[in-house]
Structures are given as C-alpha cells and as structure tokens.
Design goal:
heterodimer; A: alpha/beta; Rossmann fold; Ubiquitin-like (UB roll); de novo design (two linked rop proteins); 3 domains; about 45% helix; globular; B: alpha+beta; 7-stranded mixed beta sheet; 16 helices; about 15% strand
C-alpha cells in the first residue's frame, strides 16, 4: 500500500522546506496558479470524493461550493487543528512531521475559495507541532510562498497560527470561530452556517488539517486516482489513529472502507498478549462502540453510519477482555462532563448527571433503575442541543450499556466488577511465575 | 409574508418573525427561559423545542424563522416528553430551596414544573455546589446554584445597558454567572436583570425578604422620575402591614410599552418609590407663631381662600411640573383666568440631573411638556422680579405646589423673600423645607393615589390611575383646587379627572381630539394625533 502523508512520518524527523522541496513539494500549489481557475480546483476536489476528515465526513468540494463569493466581504479560511477527540492523534503527526504539506494544502484551498487570510487554530497542548509549524510558516513566508504576491503570481495570502487554550469544544467549528474571535468557546446557533456567516461575520471555509493535507496529492495525481483509492463516495486514504490494547498502536494510513478487522489484526498487530478482543470504538470517543463480533465492517463514513456509529475522526480505540465497560464509560462520560461548554441545558446538566450516576455505579452504589435512567437521559440529551457534543456523548452512553447490558447489570446488582475475579487470578498467576 | 401552520392553525406573519412570536400571536403556549424579545437569541435553554414537518430533529422556536408553508407542532408526545425532560435537566442541580427563595411564586421553574413537568425526581446524586448570596453590586444578589445559565442577564448588560459587567465562567455544570474581576454590577439599569431572571438566581437587594410575592397586589402606572414617563407596575401590599412596618408600596416593575421604555426602567425610577409611604404630610396644618395646628379641610380652606382674596394681585403661585395636565389646567383657570394673578410660575418639581441616550432624561419631572402645552414656560426673570418684590414687602402671599422653592430655585435669597410675606400655602405630598415654613400646609396625594395624565418629553400623553387611597387626609391637587375655587365662589363642575380632561381637550389645542377613555394605559402619541380617533396601542402582556 502506497503511503501518501504518512511517508513523512519518520520518528524524530520534520521535513522542513529543503526536504519538502526536494520531494517535489509545492509543485501542486504552482500548478493551480498556472493551470487552474479557482472553480476548477473546487470541481477537482468534488470529483475526488475527498471527505471532511475532521469527523463529520462532509464532502469537501461541496462545502467549498457553498461559500458565497459575492457578499462584498472577505472569505476566510480556518484550519481546524484543535485535534481534541480522544483516541485521535493524526493531525499532530502531520503538523510535526510535514508542516509544509499542510501549508501547501492551505495555499491551494485559499486559491480555490478566493481567500487572502487563513488561520490555523492549533490545539494548545500541541507545543512541538506548533513550533514545527511556526518554523515552516516562517520558511514559507521567507521563500515567498506566503505573504504578498505568492509564487510571483500576484496573489496575496496571509497565514496566522492561533493557539487554543485547551477546550475540547473549541474543536467544534463554531466554538472554534468564537474562540478565534476572542470570545468564550460557545458553539453558535445554526443557521447561518459558517460558510455564509463565519469568522468576524464573513464567509468562512473551515477544514481539518488532514483534509487539506490530501489536497496537494489530488492536484498532483488527479481526482480520479484519488477517488479510486477509497470506497464508494469516500475518496482516498485516511489516517487511522489506533490506540488501546493492540501490539502496535500508531497512525496507519489506509483506504477509506478498509475493514476494521484488518486495521486491528494486520496493521496494528493484533491484541496485546494475544488476548481476546472485547470492544472497539471505531471513530473517536464520540462514536458508538462495537463488540468483538462487529469488526468486519468497512471503515468509511457511509458504512459506519449504517451500522449506527460513525467514522468520526478515525480514532480506533481497542479494548481487550480485561476492560471493565462501566469504567470505560465512566471515563468517557467524565470527559464529556468536563468538556461540555455548559450552554445548552440538556448537555450541561445531562453529562454531569450521567457522570455522577456512573461514578456511583462504579463505586458499588448502583440502584435498580440506574441503567434505564441512563438510557432515558441519553435519548433526551442527543439531538436537542446547539452543537454535536451532546450527540457525541449520547452515542457511547447508549451503546455501552446496550451492547454490554449484562456487565452493567452485574455492576448495578453486585456492586462490583465481574472482571475483578479475572484480574485477581491474573495477578496471582503472574506472582507465581515471577 | 410567510404563512405557516402551528398546531393546525394558520397564521401569516411578517418576514423574519420567529416561530415563537408567531405562536404567541395564536396564543399557542411555547415555554421558554432564555428567549427574551428584547435581547439577542441565545437558544440555550432548549425549552421551546417544537416539531417541524420534514425536519428530523426538534427545532427551537425562538431561533427558527417563520417560513412559508412551514408546519409546526407544539403538542405532540415527542415535544411534550422532551420538554418534560429538559425541565428535569434544568432541575438536576437546582437546590429546590423554594421555601427560602425570594423568587418563589413568580419563578418560571415552579410555573413550568406545574405545567410541563410533573415527573418524579430521579436524581440520587449530589448537586454541584456554587456560591450563594453573592453581592454583585449595590442592587443585585446572586445565588449561583439557582441559576439556569440562560444568559439573559449577560445579554442585558452586553446589549441594553452596554456596561459589560457580567459573564459566565467555568464550563459545563460548573458554569456560573459572575462579574468580571474588579467590576461590580453597577449601572443605571442594573435592576432590570432581576426582572428578566426567570429564576431566583438574581434577586433585588431592595426587595429581598420584604414580602412573599403572592401577598402583592399590583396596579399600572407611569413613572414620574423623569420626563420619559416609563410605564410601570406598582406592587403593593395592604393586608400585611406588620411585615413591612406599615409601608404599602413594595417595589416597582417595568411595564412593556413599545413606544416608550420597551421592557426596561432605570434604577432611579425603580427605587424612587419610597416617598409614597415615608415623610408624608398626613393632615392639613396651620402654622402660627406659637404652634402648629391640625385643622380639618373644611376649616382650613376658607382661611386659605380668605388669604387669597385679601392678597388679590399681591400674590405669587408656584406650580410644579410634577402636577398632572388636568391639575395644571385647573390651576391655570383658577389663578390666571379667574383670579387674574400675574405671578403664576412653573418651577421644576425636581432639579435636573443625569441624562443618557437610552431612557434617563435630565428633566426629572414627568410633565414639563404638558405644562409647556398649557402655556407655562420658564420664567426665571419674572421669578427674580417677584422675589425682589417680596423682599421689598410689596407682596403678601405665595401658593406653592409640591416643589421646595426654598432650595430648588436658582435664586439665592428665596428664604428671606418668603419670610417677608404675610402668609404662604404649601400644597404637597411630602415634607420638605417649604412645608416647614408655610403658614398653611395642605396634604396632597402622590401619583399612585390619584387619576390624571402626564405628557412625556416626546409629547405622548399617558394616563395614570389611582391605585391606592391617599394616606391620611391627603387629597389630589385637582380636588383641592376645585374645593378651594368653590370657597372663592368659583364653580368648577368637575367631579372626576375625565371631566377636566374633556374640558381641556376642548380648550387647549395640544389635547384636541383626545379622549380620556381612549388614552389607554399605553398612552397616546401626540404626533399620531392627526387621525381623528386615537389608535389603541397594542399592549402586550407584561413580559418581564
């Protein structure tokens, strides 16, 4: 399998301008300025079936075509590098190892959407990727790839890197815009959508780091080639972040539509200590969970949606047989309760309430109707709020207790984990062998 | 104009109307907390979720614009069930301390629970602890645990008062309203945040723990604090004087008037009600060298009348722009037309003060414009001349309405001048320096104890009505004038304010075409008087 982005992922190495140019870098950017009209680039990306790889999977070219160009206001490009979805760490790799690929993608996207000012909103905790990216941007400015009259083609493009302050909700695109405008990261009511009224009230293109990093490849090698790499209407490859109980956790660049079984057993080397697989989160923490029997599924946006979960940000979290699902859900809900912005009542109160119920169950204080209550809260938390955080919390909240009902019931009934025995005997066994 | 259907009823509304407003017009009840017609849309409480045909998810009615052909359902099982659960969410961390909460009785959580909730609690967890009884500023207290984070108060300080004191800190269910570091909630409109707070999070320091709201009764009136004439509600209690040391008026609340004050009033007006119950003149008084004597009305008025007749033209009358149109009209008829007194002056009841570009006017009197329409203008020079005459001993007496001319006038030697007079009459509701000097002190009613009209600075004539009986033996000024005139042998055939207004509308150009009945409690704009009939102004229910 050919690697596109991940060929740059050499441990400890960042390919700065010299390396990137030697590898044929910025060829695509030059090509669009020389051969294409902005509209052609949009069409090209449309044909490539490139999907938004930040999590929503919205067709990228289509998103660009929604941006009105006749409002008399500038169009902004905002790159969402606030990678916060637990289990996802691909954008970090891109910005660390090959920042110029992202910058080239930004230049092409800016040209396609008539953008003269672009922002990268990078997660605050990403200190090293930020430093690499900052250096790369400086290089690009020095070389004339950014700033006034880029590539000598009479086109201006300013690129600003803005560091976030550590809120998950600022990865939600309108929360991000609020934060970028200097306000508290409260997602906005939609409509109007950011394509029409976005940053500073102007039309705004918002794309994920990975999405834009594939754009140079599409320009260089054609939309058809890219589309064929993936599955039906899910063009190209994507970076799967695999973590959890596998032998080789890491970022794997694979075609959209690859089977989950293949990711876990072939690429990630199978389960640690060759234990039994128990559950997999296929697309970041907000995705509904799969049991071990459900992993023969194609990992693209449409197939996973049909299975009642989502491809999301491509974060694959693998859990083996020693995982307590109540505690896994508790950890999940602790995250959402901590990260809910607190704007909408169902999410603000619901996530915290659920967290406290789970904490009580995990501590052995479960009560008769707790599971029903959890599921009931879940059905009124999802779909009733401004942004998708509550939906993201509702997905695991519904799927864990549904798919592992017996385990949850045991916890509530017995006040303890049915895995304790397993763990205990395991510890005993180890002690004997040591 | 888009036409939409809400619960089977069709309605056509102007483009841009929100579904929640369209539903209000159909009297379809959609509950809400964060929505306020005077503020921007926050859409965070989620109480107003409704079903829209062809949309998979429920939509919030406060944000959704009415579109042609839209079909809305507000009472399906899905909507009702969701509403119930949203309310449950809102109450998860609510302390449910209704017995000690000042908002109890006018709390939207209580009201909606009875209407849309009625579920059994499933909360077995501890509640999130937040600061309680926090002073946000001179007027407002915060209980962060009761707060449902609807952000109305934040939007008020951002959008209406534009003072930006409030914000929400922390995330999730730890979020709380607070003032920015080093700031306090201190602006001329701060009290409004209490009105718009749907729960007991923001309470009014002035009203806190004074009276349970269900003991309050309410009457509509007009604020007299400045020339704006904001529409207000006077909330009072007569049944439980032991709770309030005998005070009747407990608080003032704004009353919606699209043309004047919208939903708001200023703090100056809001807290300026104490004079109704405090420092009142309760009985007619006669001051002699030796003592102060309480006299009945029927004994004191002939004496005053005698003074007036004997003084003839050696008399000055100081009217006040706190008087109603009708009273000024009567006073003009009596003193100028009948008694032919030259020295009839209008002085501001209250000295001018702060003005802003929102509601507060520098002129702190409710009826300066009405006085102007009746022909009273500023007469500084004439007043100066009159006072000079007094000092020279050329004048005999003076009649003063309401104002404390001793301190209120720009002239410096008023006291010396007044002391040279043989006698003086003070007609007013409250004691001031003038009432300490006057020979005759006649108690008058405050504006909530009488009927009448004021004309605000824009020329809008507004009616105010008698809400409470006058304290003690006080009487409305117009009645005092009518009775006094009778003592002088002049017969005004006026028994009610309407009759005076009718006469005034015949005689004074400014009021032509108006009738007292049609004024309504929302007032009429003189500028729309071209039409022969006065359009009854639409009066929304009190949206607080």
């Amino acid at each position: 399998m050919e690697k596109l982005i991940s060929k740059y992922f050499i441990p400890g190495k960042t390919s700065f301008l010299a390396d990137y140019l030697a590898d044929g870098g910025y060829k695509a950017a030059r090509t669009v300025f020389e051969k294409y009209q902005p509209k052609d680039v949009v069409d090209l990306v449309k044909q490539s079936n490139l999907r938004g790889l930040g999590g929503a999977g919205f067709p990228c070219g289509m998103k660009w075509s929604f941006v009105p160009q006749n409002t008399g206001r500038p169009v902004y490009l905002v790159v969402n590098a606030d990678e916060g979805e637990p289990g996802t760490f691909k954008d970090k790799y891109i910005m660390y190892h090959t920042p110029h690929l992202l910058i080239e993608g930004i230049i092409i996207t800016a040209y396609a959407n008539n953008v003269h000012k672009a922002y990268i909103y990078i997660r605050g905790e990403y200190v090293e990727p930020y430093e690499k990216l900052k250096k790369a941007v400086e290089e690009a400015y020095a070389k004339g790839f950014l700033g006034k009259n880029i590539f000598g083609k009479g086109y201006d493009l300013e690129l600003v890197i803005h560091r976030g302050a550590g809120a998950y909700i600022c990865g939600e695109e309108t929360g991000l815009l609020e934060s970028l405008e200097g306000k508290k990261g409260f997602p906005r009511l939609k409509p109007p959508f950011p394509a029409v009224v976005g940053l500073f009230g102007c039309p705004t293109v918002i794309n994920n780091v990975e999405t834009l990093s594939y754009v140079p490849f599409i320009v260089n090698r054609g939309a058809e080639w890219f589309a064929k790499l993936g599955s039906d209407k899910n063009g190209g490859l994507r970076l799967f972040s695999v973590s959890g109980h596998v032998k080789k956790p890491g970022v794997y660049e694979l075609p959209l539509g690859v089977s989950l079984r293949e990711i876990i057993y072939e690429h990630a080397g199978g389960i640690r200590e060759d234990r039994k697989l128990k559950a997999v989160v296929p697309g970041g923490l907000s995705a509904a969970i799969f049991t071990a029997d459900e992993i023969d599924v194609g990992m693209d946006f449409d197939q996973l949606r049909n299975k009642g979960t989502m491809a999301g940000s491509g974060g694959v979290i693998v859990m083996d047989e020693t995982t307590c699902m109540v505690k896994a859900l508790l950890a999940t809900m602790r995250f959402f309760a901590h990260e809910s912005c607190g704007q909408c009542s169902p999410c603000r109160e619901g996530t915290g309430w659920v967290h406290r119920i789970l904490e009580r169950i995990a501590k052995g204080g479960g009560r008769g109707k707790d599971i029903e209550t959890l599921l009931d809260i879940c059905s009124f938390m999802g779909g009733t709020t401004i942004c998708a955080l509550a939906d993201g919390a509702a997905m695991p909240l519904r799927s864990y207790p549904t798919k592992f009902r017996e385990e949850f019931e045991y916890h509530v009934r017995e006040g303890k984990c049915d895995l304790d025995l397993v763990r205990h005997s395991e510890r005993e066994a180890r002690r004997i062998f040591i | 104009m888009p036409k939409l259907t809400i619960d089977g009823k069709e309605i056509e509304v102007p483009k841009g109307t929100r579904v929640i407003e369209a539903a209000k017009k159909l009297e379809t009840d959609i509950p809400y907390y964060c929505y306020h017609p005077g503020l921007s849309i926050a859409g965070n409480c989620r109480m107003c979720l409704v079903e829209v045909e062809k949309m998979p998810k429920l939509q919030i009615a406060c944000h959704m614009e009415a579109m042609d052909g839209m079909v809305i359902r507000t009472n399906t099982e899905k909507v009702l069930k969701t509403r119930q659960h949203i309310l449950e969410f809102l109450l998860v961390n609510h302390p449910l301390d209704c017995p000690v909460c000042d908002q109890a009785g006018e709390c939207w959580l209580q009201d909606y629970y009875m209407k849309h909730g009625l579920y059994d609690s499933r909360v077995n967890e501890n509640k999130v602890k937040k600061p309680k009884a926090v002073s946000l500023g001179p007027t407002v207290m915060l209980d962060a645990e009761r707060c449902i984070l609807c952000s109305r108060c934040v939007r008020f300080t951002d959008e209406i008062s534009k003072t930006f004191e409030l914000g929400i800190i922390n995330r999730g269910d730890h979020g709380e309203i607070t003032v920015f570091p080093g700031k306090e909630l201190k602006n001329p409109y701060s009290g409004n945040v209490v009105d718009i707070c749907p729960v007991g999070a923001l309470t009014d320091k002035d009203f806190r723990f004074k009276m349970r709201v269900w003991y309050l009764k309410s009457g509509d009136s007009v604020c007299t604090g400045c020339a704006r004439g904001c529409n207000i509600q006077v909330q009072y209690n007569l049944d439980r004087p032991h709770h309030t040391k005998g005070d009747r008026v407990m608080r003032l609340k704004p009353r919606f008037n699209e043309n004047i004050n919208k939903w708001w009033i200023c703090d100056e007006g809001r807290y300026g009600y104490k004079f109704h119950d405090h420092n009142r003149i309760l009985k007619p008084l006669k001051r002699t060298q030796e003592r102060l004597e309480e006299l009945a009305w029927h004994k004191i008025l002939p004496e005053v009348a005698h003074g007036l007749t004997s003084a003839k033209s050696k008399l000055g009358v100081f009217l006040s722009s706190q008087l109603s149109n009708e009273e000024l009209f009567l006073a003009k008829n009596l003193f100028k037309d009948e008694l032919k007194i030259e020295n009839v002056f209008l002085v501001p009841g209250n000295p001018p003060g702060f003005q802003d570009d929102f509601l507060i006017r520098a002129d702190k009197n409710p009826n300066s414009k009405g006085a102007e329409a009746l022909g009273f203008t500023s007469q500084d020079k004439a007043i100066h001349a009159f006072l000079a005459d007094c000092e020279k001993g050329l004048m005999k007496g003076v009649v003063v309405f309401g104002s404390d001319i001793l301190t209120g006038l720009k002239e410096k030697k008023v006291l010396q001048a007044v002391q040279k007079l043989e006698w003086s009459v003070f007609i007013g509701s409250n004691h001031n320096l003038m009432s300490e000097y006057a020979t005759f002190v006649l108690p008058s009613a405050t504006f909530i104890e009488k009927d009448g009209t004021f004309t605000n600075f824009e020329g809008r004539v507004q009616k105010f009505e008698k809400i409470l009986e006058p304290l003690g033996e006080a009487e409305p000024e117009w009645r005092i004038l009518v009775t006094l005139a009778r003592e002088l042998g002049i017969h005004f055939h006026f028994d009610r304010v309407e009759e005076i207004f009718k006469e005034m509308a015949l005689q004074v150009d400014f009021f032509k075409g108006m009738t007292y009945e049609k004024l309504g409690m929302g007032g009429s704009d003189i500028r729309s008087m071209a039409a022969p009939t006065i359009p009854a102004l639409e009066q929304d229910a009190n949206i607080l």
